[in-house]
Write a structure and sequence with these properties.
The complex is a heterodimer of chains A (402) and B (322). Chain A is α/β, with parallel strands linked by helices and 402 residues long. Chain A has 15 helices and 13 strands. Chain A has an eight-stranded mixed β-sheet. A three-stranded mixed β-sheet of chain A has the order 5-9-10. In chain A, strands 12-13 form a two-stranded antiparallel sheet. Chain A is elongated. With 322 residues, chain B is mainly alpha-helical. Chain B contains 13 helices and no strands. In chain B, helix 7 crosses helix 8, helix 10 packs antiparallel against helix 13 and helix 12 packs antiparallel against helix 13. Chain B is globular, with a radius of gyration of 25 Å. The longest helix of chain B has 37 residues. The chains are: A alpha/beta (402), B mainly alpha (322). Chains A and B meet through helix 4, strand 7 and helix 11 of A and helix 7 of B.
């Protein structure tokens, strides 16, 4: 708690500094910055902190700070919420636009976006074809990968210091309930020299529908035919998702509930977000990826997992069991979802401008907020396509960004 | 009481043009009574109409006794939750009723006047603790504390009786029952205390005069006369046990299955709604959860109806004793 406090105080100091910097230069330029087509102000660009990967894209990045109605509304993924609230704070300081984000879960976010009650949705899964159909009346969606996260297999084994190494088969076996002891030969074979106890394995999973569950079960579905047979009845669309029919274990609500469940029982194991595990110093397993390497979950291995040679044109991709040699295999993406032609859904072009300006900022300077909060930022290989996605947004055919 | 029953002078004083004061009062009371009934009826009609697709798909018996709850397969059965609700409530009542009645007797019959207030206030304070605090305390303190006991039972009796068998992961029907029992003890104890304290002094003294001991007083006067009141207290406690949500969801293990043992993780009607509603996006999932709410409502109504029936019986019994 105190550490959080201190961090927050530190962050506030930083914001204050940025704010002063922005103020000193913005007096002359703030008046015309609402009008479309005005050149971005130099002062605002100068205020930009360096965003690790994003700004290495080449051309200098500029921010226009369209004000619109002074606020933007979004809803969806709980996973991205801490990042979006920090981004919202920073963006408000920088541009005076307030971001209201309802962290109601990806499904709820998509519903609200479809019903056009928010300016953007955020989801840990890209839109299903049926969801695109459902929103067709409002036009074509644009899905912008905004951040990346990993899900780790966390455990509680007293007296064990080195991280346990797991293969996909071990992870699937534990969560299927076929591996029930920590000294199971399958685990022992991958952990020579580790003195594994004969403790019972006590599985904890999420009881509430969750993007974390979706990322984790998508991985299990990708690596384990047994998982698909037992949990999905042979149907991979039923063995992966926000809620599945768990063959074993206790249910707990939220990352903190699962962590509590793990910590309480010697031999407990569950899946939680990497960010949560890192913040709370919870031990987690090293996983073997598709290339056969054992990968420690970290911001670097998440970034590696997200760093693909090519991405599909619509940016709907799946990072579970990544091909990347140094990538961590249980990695997920959160997409920000908006309509391509905003003239059909938003009440004014100024508001559309404000939204697009925020998104442009979020995929560049905003990415600087990711690492301190343990989120994986947008890799350089993806940035050009993200930029193209934001640039494609328009007002009845008129581009909103130059 | 009819207005005519008043003495003439008073009636003249109370009379106003139009409705009498009594008339206005009666009208107001009727209005308030309607205010209570309308939301309940409204709730029932509304929940039923929302859940029509569920009843159409599974049928009322199919949904109520369906043992599988699998939103990813669009299969919804309420039985695991009905079972969990009944089992945890039963465990809670089994523990809470004797303890609460004994505490009430202790306070009214045994303790000296000064200690009486102290104990009574402490018990009442238990009722003022928010249920989320009970839940946290249950999860962090009680569950680890109960585990050795659970393991001992599962290792001995459990090897013969499957209902008490291991494994004992901690959160379970049993843990939920124990937490809920602590939550309802003050409710039952406080009401029973009032009931016992209202025992007519004459009858107590009559038993003492005949050479009866304190125990004789309790056995022959306090308990029989208080029976219907204590039963009302128990029903109130049971209603709380059936509906308790947050504390239960924190210690029951949240597994939508019928656990074979009382040490298995399970789910109750109220806790599954709290857990799954936020992210219920699968086909029929929100409707099925609301249908569970309707089942819970029906169970509550049944329990209360049963209570009224039993209380009527007991009240007649008391008449005979007195």
């Amino acid at each position: 708690m105190t550490i959080h406090r201190l961090k927050r105080l530190g962050a506030m100091g930083l914001i204050a500094t940025v704010f002063v910097g922005a103020c000193s230069g913005s007096g002359a330029t703030s008046a015309p910055s609402n009008a479309p087509g005005v050149a971005p102000s130099a002062a605002q660009t100068a205020g930009a902190a360096s965003a690790p990967d994003a700004t290495t894209g080449g051309s200098a990045v500029t921010y226009r700070c369209g004000k619109g109605d002074g606020q933007l509304n979004g809803a969806g993924s709980t996973f991205i919420f801490p990042l979006l609230s920090k981004m919202g704070e920073d963006y408000n300081t920088k541009c005076g636009v307030k971001l209201n984000y309802q962290s109601i879960g990806s499904g709820g976010g998509i519903k609200q976006w479809t019903a056009n009650t928010v300016d953007f949705g955020a989801s840990d899964a890209y839109l299903k074809d049926s969801e695109i159909q459902a929103a067709a009346a409002n036009g074509e969606p644009v899905e912008i990968p905004a951040t990346f996260g990993a899900v780790v297999v966390a455990y509680n084994l007293q007296g064990l210091s080195a991280p346990i190494q797991m293969t996909p088969d071990i992870v699937a076996g534990i969560f299927l309930g076929t591996i029930t002891k920590w000294n199971d030969p399958a685990i022992a074979a991958q952990n020579a020299g580790v003195n594994l106890p004969a403790t019972d394995i006590s599985v904890v999973h999420r009881s509430d529908g969750s993007g974390t569950t979706s990322i984790f079960t998508t991985y299990l579905t990708a690596v384990s035919p047994d998982w698909v047979t037992t949990v999905g009845g042979g149907d991979p669309t039923k063995s992966a998702g926000k809620e599945v029919e768990w063959p074993t274990g206790l249910g707990a609500s939220g990352n903190e509930g699962v962590t509590q469940g793990i910590n309480q029982t010697d031999g407990g194991v569950g899946y939680i977000e990497l960010a949560y595990a890192l913040k709370n110093n919870i031990p987690f397993a090293t996983l073997q990826n598709k290339s056969g390497n054992f990968i420690v979950p970290s911001l670097d291995s998440v970034k590696a997992a997200a760093d693909l040679p090519t991405y599909p044109g619509d940016l709907r991709f799946n990072l579970a069991n990544t091909d990347s040699a140094q990538g961590y295999p249980i990695t997920g993406t959160t997409w920000i979802i908006v309509y391509k032609d905003l003239s059909k859904v938003l009440k004014s072009q100024e508001r559309a401008q404000a939204l697009v300006d925020f998104l442009w900022w979020a995929i560049h300077e905003g990415q600087g907020d990711a690492a301190p909060l343990f989120y994986g930022s947008i890799p350089a290989s993806l940035l050009a396509q993200d930029e193209a996605a934001v640039t494609s947004l328009n007002w009845g055919g008129t581009p909103l960004l130059p | 009481m009819t207005p005519g029953s008043h003495a003439g002078g008073i009636r003249t004083l109370a009379r106003r043009p139009g409705l009498s004061q009594d008339g206005w009062f009666r009208l107001a009371l009727r209005g308030v009574a309607l205010l209570v009934i309308v939301p309940i009826l409204w709730m029932m009609v509304d929940t039923f109409s929302v859940t029509v697709p569920v009843w159409e798909r599974f049928g009322i018996p199919g949904f109520v006794v369906g043992a599988r709850w699998a939103p990813s397969f669009t299969i919804y059965g309420a039985l695991p939750f009905i079972y969990g609700t009944i089992l945890t409530s039963a465990i809670a009542m089994l523990i809470a009723v004797p303890v609460a009645v004994l505490i009430a007797l202790l306070i009214t019959e045994i303790l000296p006047a000064r200690a009486r207030t102290a104990v009574a206030v402490t018990v009442d304070l238990l009722a003022a603790i928010p249920s989320v605090v009970y839940g946290l305390w249950g999860l962090l303190v009680l569950v680890p504390f109960l585990r050795p006991f659970e393991q001992a039972v599962a290792g001995t009796l459990g090897t013969v009786i499957p209902f008490l068998a291991g494994p004992t992961p901690g959160p379970s029907y049993f843990a939920a029952g124990v937490v809920v029992s602590i939550m309802i003890v003050p409710i039952i104890a406080a009401l029973s205390r009032e009931v016992f304290a209202a025992t007519p002094r004459l009858q107590r003294e009559a038993v003492r005069a005949l050479g009866g001991t304190r125990w004789d007083v309790i056995r022959t006067v306090v308990l029989p006369i208080g029976r219907s009141g204590v039963l009302a207290a128990i029903i109130l406690g049971l209603a709380r046990a059936i509906g308790e949500t947050i504390a239960v969801t924190m210690v029951i293990g949240n597994a939508p299955k019928i656990g074979a043992s009382i040490f298995s993780p399970g789910f109750t009607l109220a806790s599954v709604i709290a857990n799954e509603f936020n992210e219920a996006n699968q086909e029929l999932h929100p409707e099925a959860l609301i249908a569970l709410g309707l089942v819970l409502l029906v169970i509550s109504v049944l329990v209360n109806g049963l209570a009224i029936l039993i209380r009527g019986r007991f009240a007649r019994g008391v008449g005979r004793v007195a």
